[in-house]
Amino acid sequence: MVNPVTETPTSEHMAPEEEILSQEDIERGRLLFARDVDFMRSAVSLETLPPPDLPEVCFAGRSNVGKSSLINALTNRKGLARASNTPGRTRELNYFNVDGRLFLVDLPGFGYAKASKSDIARWQILTKAYLRGRAGLRRVFLLIDSRHGIKPSDIEVMEMLDEAAVTYQLVLTKTDKLKKGQLEKVYKATQKRIKKRPAAYPNVMKTSSEKKDGLDSLRAEIADLALPENLAKK
Ligand SMILES: Nc1nc2c(ncn2[C@@H]2O[C@H](COP(=O)(O)OP(=O)(O)OP(=O)(O)O)[C@@H](O)[C@H]2O)c(=O)[nH]1
Ligand SMILES: [Mg+2]
């Protein structure tokens, strides 16, 4: 239903998480991702990371949780980040430049991956060193598969980020795989588990790259961390 005066959708048709955002927040987030998003480089070592001259956010989480798919959904570009059915698809730190205002980083997954033990160990060392010590890293989006909830390897990452005082925000993924009631249960349980964690951002997000749910909320969060438009480096 559309309000005939403002021509905006009424709350009846809005996803619950969108109701708490102002239209202005939503527009700001949409605008950021409607602009240029360019693949910049793949880094296989800390030495090959770009200079930290823009604010940066990254997507971390277990293998196969949906990190690369979420980047593609957020940016509305299907093949920008390489997604795959095979856990362990992303093996480097992949940098994307969003409108000259922010770096978005797709990380290799942790936990189960179809790769050799030595390769996995190498990515884990690199990813952990990056998460702990990267200058300019404004927030880690830690993705959790909504079907599985928080796993011991996620807790390990959260403990590390708490210790390093790096802000992280939990994002439930693949919400299309759950019924509404199940999702609410997982959401509440997840929310409860981050309550006393010192570096955890208080709001857990819910997303589906498949159904494009929750993307405007996430875009708005990210837009808050980007450089203002008038300072964009082109
Ligand atoms: N149903 C559903 N499937 C999804 C969603 N997001 C991702 N997937 C599927 O989950 C699988 C893994 O997705 P990726 O985006 O490659 O996961 P990743 O976290 O980047 O994985 P690694 O790079 O291996 O760490 C793919 O088969 C995707 O199609 C979603 O929102 N809903
Ligand atoms: Mg990936």
UniProtKB/TrEMBL annotation:
SUPFAM superfamilies: P-loop containing nucleoside triphosphate hydrolases. GO terms for cellular component: cytosol. Residues 53-228 form the EngB-type G domain. It comes from the Bacteria. One of its GO terms (biological process) is division septum assembly. Its cofactor is Mg(2+). One of its GO terms (molecular function) is metal ion binding. Keywords: Cell cycle, Cell division, GTP-binding, Magnesium, Metal-binding, Nucleotide-binding, Septation. The keyword Cell division applies. It holds the Pfam family MMR_HSR1. InterPro entries: G_ENGB_dom, GTP-bd, GTP-bd_ribosome_bio_YsxC, P-loop_NTPase. Belongs to the TRAFAC class TrmE-Era-EngA-EngB-Septin-like GTPase superfamily. EngB GTPase family. Necessary for normal cell division and for the maintenance of normal septation. This is Probable GTP-binding protein EngB. The lineage of its organism: Bacteria, Pseudomonadati, Pseudomonadota, Alphaproteobacteria, Maricaulales.
